[in-house]
Write a structure and sequence with these properties.
Order of helices and strands: EHHEEEEHEE
Distance between the termini: 21 Å
Number of strands: 7
Strand order of the largest sheet: 5-4-3-7-6
Length: 155
Amino acid sequence: MAYMSQEGYDKLVAELQRLESVERPKASAAIAEARDKGDLSENSEYDAAKEAQAHLEDKINQLKMTISEAKIVDTSRLSTDSVQILTKVEMTNLTTKSKMSYTIVSENEADLRAGKISIKTPIAQGLLGKKVGDEVEIKIPRGTIKLRIDNISIA
């Protein structure tokens, strides 16, 4: 089960529709075109087209599974008392004194450039349930970081 925002869910549904209505027909056309080129036993284009179609079908099936298991979080019912999924956390790195801000999202919605980190990351795991003013030490691949939570808001 994956908790996600309505926006994240809508993006997954749109991607699934695009794959099924645009990419699947393209894959079928590529197979048909390669098949028309003769002997299938030595036709690398046909093999490549079939492999591409298999990857596409895998991706479609994974999206369908994710969508079927998705639970949309009603952001109006979220609290800013502590860090949880779909909250935006502003914090200070106590070692470097640098400020940072992340929104904790489902794995499918993670986008570091947009400041959205997966709930499964070490930082998100270390922040969950913490409150404004809490100082936490979180083990990350490069060592341990010390953070102070400055603000919690709804994303």
